[in-house]
Amino acid sequence: MKTSANKIPIQNRVASIFVHVTDLRRAAEWYSELLGLPVKEERLNGGPVYWFDIPGTGLILDNNANNRLNPDWREEMKPLIMFSCEDIDEAYAYVTEHGEPLMKPEHHPGMAYFNFLDPDGRAYMVCWSNGVAGSELDESNEPLTTSPIRPRIGGVFVNVRNMKSAAKWISGLLGLACREEDTIQSIYTVPTTTGAAILLDDNRFRQGENYEIPFMFACDDIEAAFQYVSEKGMDVFHGIEGIGVKFFTLRDPDNNLVMVCQDGEEPSGIIDGYTLVQLPVRDLPRAVSFYRDVLGFILEHPERPIEEHAFLRTLSGQGPGLHLLEVESDEYKHDHWYRGEQPVHGLELHSRDVRALHRRLVRAGIRIEAEPYFVEPCGGYVKFYDPDGHLICVNQS
């Protein structure tokens, strides 16, 4: 769920999320393997964080080594969500009206940030950067990986105790209208302009559970994703669950829980239809005349000369297009084959009346392979050869 940009000092998007770890290298290697990405050694240079360049919402691993050097820092100050801003001082003044700042803006070369608490005591960060605060990569530009788990954070879960008050608070913070009718649900989606949605979740509170699942990665094939992590020996917290929306949960080396989720939509990247059938022909005008005048196809672009190739479609427009490509005789090969001594067709078409079609074929002097016959429950069939010798079967269902 996306929304248009607002005009408040905080950008309504999850720029990045934090995963807090103890061993930065171990965590970087584990998440890299999960996502099928190479480890970037230059980011393991002794600093406290390792980040992943993934589109939409970024992922930052943080061992908090620098934070623990500050005597005023406390463990409850660790944020999950980073928001971006264009002016850190304006954002700080704004947040003081909506939350509890934990610190004044801390300035560093090229960036500044501060943390604050929500009414439930959860820490957030607001960050300004003269480059990119969080991930602003094109959401359509996912890196190529070797894992069925996509390098994309689909949603960030925020555990809450009172859904109505939590929804009102974060909606107010981000300049959104609160949909009170939706606060009776166990998940309330906070729309963002881009990247991961914020998902308020009171399931843990309702069920008396003391763990939380901070975020989820997306995948297109939940079975393939689960097989992948199983083969890698990763620690599965819960196996595949859900109807429509399917997911499973992992435990990283620091016992942080990570969900992998496939929604109920068709997975992307699969074949979802037929576009074109191509047939080689030796005499293009003759072939076009047969498919147009005898079989009833429509010639695409009739204004063009019939030279080298031609595109046709059925009168109804259903099914793939037909591309007739003229070739030399020594390059030609028909599209059917033989099983034993019986020819097997490669192209099967459809007609509402195979008997009427048969009569048209006979009048045109077309070679018939099989007279019309009917098989229950599949319907009627007729088989014939086109002028170039391709065996074609037509079904009446």
What is the gist of this entry?
Pfam families: Glyoxalase. GO terms for molecular function: lyase activity. With about 400 residues, the chain is an alpha+beta fold.
Written description of the protein model:
The model has no long low-confidence stretch (mean pLDDT 90). 17% of the residues lie in helices and 35% in strands. The chain is an alpha+beta fold and 397 residues long. It has seven helices and 25 strands. 31% of the residues are buried. The protein has three domains: 120 residues, 2,3-Dihydroxybiphenyl 1,2-Dioxygenase, domain 1 (Roll), CATH 3.10.180.10; 114 residues, 2,3-Dihydroxybiphenyl 1,2-Dioxygenase, domain 1 (Roll); 121 residues, 2,3-Dihydroxybiphenyl 1,2-Dioxygenase, domain 1, CATH 3.10.180. The longest helix has 12 residues.
Please tag this protein with its features.
397 residues, alpha+beta, 2,3-Dihydroxybiphenyl 1,2-Dioxygenase, domain 1, 3 domains, eight-stranded mixed sheet, seven-stranded mixed sheet, 25 strands, 17% helix
